[in-house]
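The protein record passed on below.

***
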Amino acid sequence: MMRRSQFIRSLPGLALGGSMGGAAHGAPSAGPLRVLVPANAGGGWDTTARAFGRALLDSGGASAVHFDNKGGAAGTIGLAQFVHTRRADPTALLMMGSVMLGGIITGKPPVSLSQATPLARLATEFNVFVLPANSPYKSMADLLAQLQKDPASVKWGGGSRGSTEHIAAALVARAVGVDPTRLQFLPFRGGGEATAALLGGNVTVGGSGYSEFAESIQNGRMRAIAVTSPQRLPGLEAPTLKELGLPVEIGNWRGLFGAPGITPTQRQDLIDRIVAAARHRSWQDMLDKHAWTPALLTGDAFSQFVDDEFNSLRLTLIKAGLL
């Protein structure tokens, strides 16, 4: 996993919409791009895609950026739509990340990432575990004591099965002597659903990327009790799991793939546009706003990283008792 190099307080994200238009003043603009986001609007993938879409526009890497959302099955439904409908399309991008790898490993869908074209890793986001403000538990220690006493009484809410927060919860359970297969984990299709379930009392504890819970933490509706990062997040009074004696550190990276069947020249053109956008101040500001760690890696190096991550994640899922 790419280690964090910076964390800045999270600020409100971009407004959601179907497309973005315009380019930086005086910047040469390439043609339009279309991004398939394999998740519902409002979640981490969607927020990342739209933030990077703005950077593509501001850097002159696209004259317009259009978005299609197709959620479900840890992103593999969107992956299937992408590889079957966008073949040889040099204007098509797919937002993806470690959650999709987990979905492929656990769900064994009839589609593979090898059918698409790896372009670039963009950033890593670490998870935060939160309790509603009115929870009877005040800390991760309180929660884990209850988990040890009665695993079925603690309901964990988060993203899809095999997601980084699911893996982290399973590894935490294992670390305190609870069989991970007894973990009560309820998957949701997006951060909005998970937030509603937590505040509505349907789950005991929530886990997700910090950016998805930041507003609720800041307005006092949620209390952060632990983070999965190697260091504490600035401005957030929540210990790392390692500080609590739990050997768990995991991040959720996100990146972009191109369509199947594009030419090497078309692939390099997309990579060049992505690199320019990643270096633009617009993207740097988004990294700061959402407390994302920059993790740019492109081309064949990114392709090798994905292969290595797939194997590593599979071993982690086995260790966590989820596979």
In short: DSSP finds ten helices and eleven strands in the chain. The chain has two domains: 19-123+253-319, 126-227. Residues 175 and 245 are 9 Å apart (CA to CA).
